[in-house]
Amino acid sequence: MIQEPTSSESAAESDFEPEATRRDAGAAESSRANRGWWDRNADEYQVEHGTFLGDDRFVWGPEGLDEVEAELLGAPEDLKDRRVLEIGAGAAQCSRWLAAQGARPVALDISHRQLQHALRIGGSFPLVCADAGALPFADASFDLACSAYGALPFVADPVRVLTEVRRVLRPGGRFVFSVTHPIRWAFPDEPGPEGLSVSASYFDRTPYVEQDEQGRAVYVEHHRTIGDRVRDIAASGFRLVDLVEPEWPAWNTSEWGGWSPLRGNLIPGTAIFVCVRD
Ligand SMILES: C[S@@+](CC[C@H](N)C(=O)[O-])C[C@H]1O[C@@H](n2cnc3c(N)ncnc32)[C@H](O)[C@@H]1O
């Protein structure tokens, strides 16, 4: 049972400054680290980004591309009664929008604390605490699946996640997911001009790891090139039908970490993959 967070309750505070490095991190270490990181940081994340995300909007990334205009899952009228799995749902803002269109979403996340925020905001759809690499659902139990920056940037074995998502989709189903645009890995993660000069090899797949004094990972992000992502999608049996690179819109003056109007007008920040399960 997921309980709503109270104002007096807060996730465990960390009292160490993690060291940022690039090193290998396997599937189990990445999962454990990221579950802990999102549990510890969910409160701050929702305070910082909750207004931009909106409680019941479906935003694909920091550019602010909204599913209302993108229609990557299909026309809103076709979402009615569709069973939709949201992977790495966080506070389930996207699922709330889907429910408002008449769809039947299930919001899955590895972080209990993120799902507590989903419960706090409200909605009458299931919340499931699980790893995207082992989905607790029967084969072909969903019509659609989606993920806005959930799970895929954080897992060591994306083919495993994609294979699992394909398994739970019915034939003809579609999976749309967004991740940090791979080109971003060649630049410092800074919103200002310092984030405009190449500082690392785009081809270096070594994960970004934050670790504690004992060398245990406390946060992990995994880099795949565009070609890697295409091959991962094909290896899992999906057919890639579109790759969307949202342009930075004039109305968006917000910064989100290393995403900013300055950089967004020059280089892509988000890649959205549209995949079909034949
Ligand atoms: C950047 S948030 C995206 C959530 C939401 N779409 C948003 O924009 O706030 C990433 C989410 O992915 C979840 N996540 C990370 N690794 C995961 C995994 N292996 N399985 C399921 N969820 C995962 C995190 O707990 C977090 O809630």
Can you put this structure into words, describing what you see?
The chain has one domain: Rossmann fold. Helices cover 27% and strands 21% of the residues. Strands 4-3-2-5-6-10-9 form a seven-stranded mixed beta sheet, with helices on both faces. A three-stranded antiparallel beta sheet has the order 1-7-8. With 278 residues, it is an alpha/beta fold. Residues 6-13 have low confidence and may be disordered. The structure holds S-adenosylmethionine. S-adenosylmethionine binds next to helix 1. It is an enzyme of class 2 (transferase). Its EC number is 2.1.1.-. Keywords: Methyltransferase, Transferase. Residues 1-40 are annotated as: Disordered.
Strand pairing plus helix content: what structural class? alpha/beta
What Rg, in angstroms, do the CA atoms define? 18 Å
How many domains? The number is 1
Number of helices: 7
SSE arrangement, N to C: EHHEHEHEEHEEEHEHE
GO molecular function, one term: methyltransferase activity
EC number: 2.1.1.-
Protein name: Class I SAM-dependent methyltransferase
Enzyme class: transferase
